[in-house]
Amino acid sequence: MDPVIIVGAGPAGLALSLALARHEVPTVVLDQGPGRDEERCARTVVLREDTAALTARLAGTGFTENGTRLTGVRSLRRRQELAAHTYGEALPAPLHLPQHVLTGALRDALDREPLARLVPATRLDGLDQDGGGVTAHTSGAGGPTWRGSHLVGCDGPRSTVRKLLDIRFPGRTAVERHAVAAVRCDLPFAGEAVLHRNPPWRGSGTEVTARPLPGGRWRIDWLLPPGGELVTPDALVARIRATLAGWTDGTTPPYDLLDTGVHTVHHRLARRWRSGRVLLAGDAAHLLGALGTPAVDEGLRDADNLAWKLALIRHGEARDTLLDSYQQERRAVVAARLRAADQSLPILRGSSALRPLLPGAARGHEALSSDAHLGRGPLGAPPAHLGSPLTPVPAHPRTSADVGVGDLVTDVPVTAEDGSTVRLRDRLGRPALLVVLVAPGTGVWDRRHWMTAGVMPRLAEAVAALPQPAELLVAENYPGAAAHTVLLVRPDGHLALALSGVDRGELRAAARTVCGAEAGEREGAARAGR
Question: Strand pairing of 286-287 and 256-269?
């Protein structure tokens, strides 16, 4: 079996390789670099609940020890505290960690994976594709050519794959620039991220952001004015001293300067994410990050969305046209995120004359500036695929709306057919759809009883008859779902369907829709299931 060729060994490329391995698809990762990423405390990532869970499924949970679960976000303006948001059940805490820790954990997992091969010091020079696959022409240590069924460009903002395909990458350059420093010191914000606009002391600019790391370390970002201000070492040290003094008692506390840098945010979106058997993902497909919008998160979500679709095609369980939905779903999510940032930037950074004219102005600067950091609103909320061609037309619209069809699933406890109890998200990323029956009271029953009671025999029979592999799970409850609601969940965790009761034909047709069947095939599947 030819592998899927992945060009680039950043977070998106490594995650895609591991995700495909979970679906029993071999991969070759071509990495132009020499191997491990340089250890940089000033280069960090923030993983939301869904992407942190995805990374844990792919690489294990050990990497989280080198990150910090944020406890909240404190929003300040001048000397005033505008809001103190606390993470909890309704507002899940993100994970903040150095990017080299994330990629290191993914590389370690890749080394243990027999279906994945990482080839360092190998540069892509050209590619050819035909009806049977893709040939990558390379130079370097890895050899001259590689043959695969598909090729995915995860090779960053200057993507060679994108250039070889002649795909345009329009957008805006240098939307924001930040001076960045990683320091070790004591600050009065235990576990909190800090958003400070217009600090009252001189030398810190108009906005400062700080996030904690383990070991008393902090990443601090200073928004730089437009125009490419040169950040000299002396100027950066002055910013650090003024900021630390302003956040403590007016005197600069002892600190260790660990790392520095300048972070420039660009906003760009590739016109196309697919050309035949070649696809783009991660920074090769999109760039974002202004106002704290997720960047690495979106690359990981690309990998999660693409892996199960490629796997279904590779295993002969879906047509190649299923890959069209990858661009339709993921590009729409990122485009909406970029639009929201472009609408918000004039409110927070521009002329006051624009504020009453733009969406979101009435919510206030604090709410708007903190949305992406809190994982809510258009800037930061988890993606939903409401208009996806893979979302079946609901047979029970009220039921579908109540449980959030199109959204990421809520991570409730579920019972598997063998009687074990697990978290719902622990079953994601496998080569199977998930069918979840909401059945209050089953948690206290012996499996021998509830597997033969009520609607379970009919549902088990319907699941066994689905044209794609599927796993049957039972939940005591699910937000918004009544008893005997049947949920169909995609391998990437998006809720595709909610049925009020067991309808074998509807379930079969919905499974076909999720896997990319065309309308005529879906109607035939529904009739065949009845």
Answer: antiparallel
**Which residue type, as a one-letter code, is found at position 435?**
V
pTM of the model: 0.93
Q: Is pLDDT above 80 for 458?
A: yes
Q: How far apart are CA 100 and CA 212, in angstroms?
A: 16
3-state secondary structure of 148: strand
Strands 207-213 and 217-223: antiparallel
Whole-Å CA distances, 245 to 143, 252, 290, 433: 55, 4, 27, 54
The DSSP result for 458-473, as a single string, is HHHHHHHTSSS-EEEE
pLDDT tens-place string over residues 177-224: 999 999 999 999 989 999 999 999 988 889 999 999 999 999 999 999
**Whose structure tokens read 């404190």?**
74
DSSP conformation class of 503: -
**What distance in Å separates the CA atoms of residue 51 and residue 383, rounded to the nearest whole number?**
11
Instruction: Give the contacts of 290 (CB within 8 A, at least 6 positions apart).
Output: 175, 176, 265, 267, 341, 345
How do residues 250-308 score in pLDDT, each as one tens digit? 899 999 999 999 999 999 999 999 999 999 999 999 999 998 888 999 999 999 999 99
For 331, the enclosing helix (H) or strand (E) is helix 324-349
Question: What are the two backbone dihedrals, phi and then psi, of residue 427, each rounded to the nearest 5 degrees?
Answer: -95, 0
* Phi-psi region at 3: left, alpha or beta (left = phi > 0; alpha = psi -120 to 50): beta
Given this model, what pLDDT does residue 442 score? 65
pLDDT at position 361 is 44
pLDDT more than 90, % of the chain:
72
Inter-residue contact 314 to 132 (CB < 8 Å): no
527 contacts 484 by C-beta, under 8 angstroms: no
Residues 6+ apart with CB under 8 A from 339: 378
The answer to whether the CB of 33 falls within 8 A of the CB of 120 is yes
Pairing of strands 274-275, 278-280: antiparallel
Strand order in the sheet with 286-287: 80-86, 72-77, 192-197, 207-213, 217-223, 171-184, 256-269, 286-287
